[in-house]
Design a protein that fits this description.
Helix content: 40-55%
CATH class of the largest domain: Alpha Beta
Strand content: 15-25%
C-alpha cells in the first residue's frame, strides 16, 4: 500500500493546477491541508483493517489515502464529476478503494453495506459541506443504516449544537435528534487555515458513536420528533404555544397543558428546558391521551 502523498498545501496545489480544477461554491468545497488533523480524524474514527469505511465528499482524495492505509475497504462518494479523474489519479495504487460518482442523499447505503460488508455496521468518515451537514447525518440515522460510528468535520457551531444539553442557546432539535441515536464527542477544533480555500468559520471534528439501543424508550418515535421540531420552531414561545401552533400536531391546548403538567413542569416552560427523556415522556403522555380518546369514541359508537 502506498504512503499518503496529499495533506500538505504544496501537493494539493500541484494536483489542482495539473487538472485546472475550479472550486465549486455550490458543493461547499474546502479541502483539508493539514496532516496532523488528518491523523486525528483517523485515530478518532478508530479505523482498523476489519472496517468498511464510507467516505462522503473525498474531494481530491486527501483523506481517502489515509483511510485506505488504515481500513479494509473504502467507498468514496463524490458528487462533483470534475473530481472523478483527479480521484482516479490520486487513488491509483490504492486497491481497496471504490469511487462512486453520486449524490450521497441518493445512494442506497444499506444496500452498499450489505454488498461490501455483509450487512455488518460500517464506519462513516467525512469532511462535510456545511450547507448539507444535517440532512446527511440525519439521513444516515433515520434510514437505520447499519452504522458503528460517524466521524465528521463540520462547522464548529454545528458540532456544539450536536453535543450540548438543555438550557444552552445552542440546544435544539439537532441536539436531541443526534443524542437519541448516538453519543457525540468533539475530537478537535480546526481553524480555517487548515483548509483550501479557507472557510469563513471555524470547524470541528465530531465523533458520533451509534447506540445499539436508544437511551430512552418512547411509544411513538415519529411523534416525539414532531413534538421536538414544534418546540424549537418558535423558540421564544412557551412549549405549550409552540405545540398548539404546529401544523404537524393536532392536540388541543388543554391536552398539551395536561401532558406538560404530568411531567411536573409549569405550562409556561420552554422547549429548551426539557431533556430528551422528558420529551419522550411528553410524547408518551400525548400518545396515551389520543388513545383514550379513540377508545371513548369507539364506546360511544
Amino acid at each position: 500500500m502506498k504512503e499518503p502523498t496529499l495533506g500538505n498545501p504544496q501537493n494539493t496545489i500541484a494536483v489542482l493546477q495539473k487538472y485546472n480544477f475550479v472550486f465549486q461554491k455550490k458543493f461547499g468545497q474546502n479541502f483539508l491541508i493539514d496532516t496532523h488533523v488528518l491523523d486525528k480524524i483517523i485515530r478518532a474514527a478508530e479505523i482498523t483493517k476489519d472496517d468498511f469505511v464510507l467516505e462522503i465528499g473525498p474531494g481530491i482524495g486527501t483523506m481517502t489515502q489515509y483511510l485506505a492505509c488504515a481500513a479494509g475497504k473504502v467507498a468514496a462518494v463524490e458528487i462533483d464529476r470534475a473530481l472523478i479523474p483527479i480521484l482516479e489519479d490520486t487513488l491509483d495504487g490504492y486497491e481497496n478503494v471504490t469511487i462512486i460518482n453520486n449524490d450521497i442523499l441518493k445512494v442506497d447505503i444499506a444496500k452498499l453495506a450489505e454488498e461490501e460488508n455483509g450487512g455488518k455496521p460500517i464506519k462513516v468518515v467525512a469532511n462535510l459541506p456545511y450547507y448539507i451537514t444535517t440532512p446527511i447525518i440525519m439521513g444516515l440515522f433515520e434510514k437505520h443504516v447499519p452504522l458503528k460510528s460517524i466521524t465528521v468535520m463540520v462547522q464548529k457551531e454545528v458540532a456544539d449544537r450536536m453535543q450540548t444539553g438543555p438550557g444552552s442557546k445552542d440546544y435544539g432539535a439537532l441536539s436531541l435528534a443526534v443524542q437519541y441515536y448516538a453519543e457525540p464527542y468533539i475530537v478537535a477544533n480546526v481553524p480555517p487555515n487548515c483548509f483550501m480555500p479557507r472557510p469563513k468559520v471555524g470547524s470541528a471534528v465530531i465523533r458520533l458513536e451509534r447506540y445499539e439501543e436508544p437511551p430512552v424508550n418512547v411509544l411513538d418515535e415519529k411523534l416525539m420528533f414532531r413534538i421536538i421540531r414544534a418546540s424549537f420552531n418558535q423558540r421564544r414561545k412557551t412549549l405549550a404555544n409552540g405545540l398548539k401552533n404546529s401544523a404537524e400536531l393536532d392536540f388541543t391546548k388543554e391536552e398539551i397543558e395536561t401532558a406538560i403538567e404530568c411531567l411536573g413542569k409549569s405550562t409556561s416552560v420552554r422547549g429548551e428546558a426539557l431533556t430528551l427523556e422528558e420529551f419522550a415522556k411528553l410524547s408518551d403522555e400525548l400518545s396515551e391521551i389520543r388513545e383514550k380518546q379513540k377508545k371513548s369514541q369507539n364506546i360511544q359508537r
